[in-house]
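Thread: quick sanity check before group meeting

JM: Hey all, I'm pulling together slides for Thursday and realized we never actually wrote out the predicted structure for the chain we discussed last week. Dropping the sequence here so it's in one place. If anyone has concerns about the input, flag it before I start.
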Amino acid sequence: MKLTRFTDYSLRVLIYLGLKDNGRVTIREISDAYGISRNHLMKVVSLLTRMDYLDARRGPGGGIALARPPAEINVADVVRDMEDDLNLVECFCDGGTCVIKPMCKLKIALDKALNAYLETLEKYTLSDLLEPRNELTRVFGMTA
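JM (edit): ok, ran it. Output follows.
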């Protein structure tokens, strides 16, 4: 399974903000840190804010920050919320037209694989992704 770039960027934004210890940052700062498009990040940040992962404020003293502690942000939840389609194959979708759908074991195998994937991600929070903290902060030129 391959995550969309949108989900990848969402996780990167959360990691960056988690390293900032509740400090507010701008989209430009995150864009510059990762070398990715500000326009794309604006869409990512907008959705993360609507889904209560981020707190975004305008004006002086504004910027974006995590809306809750990193230990309360589950990686599987982020993936489920950001991915618009976890249907691995057509038969996962309503109205799938595959002719072998009624007797095919592939759907069962792929469903088990997807569930195992998400169960693994359930074991991780944003806090887990912030280690090794010293090395990560050094990459971004932050002080630990």
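AS: nice. The first strand starts at residue 54 and ends at 57. Residues 106-122 form the longest helix (17 residues).
JM: adding both to the slides.
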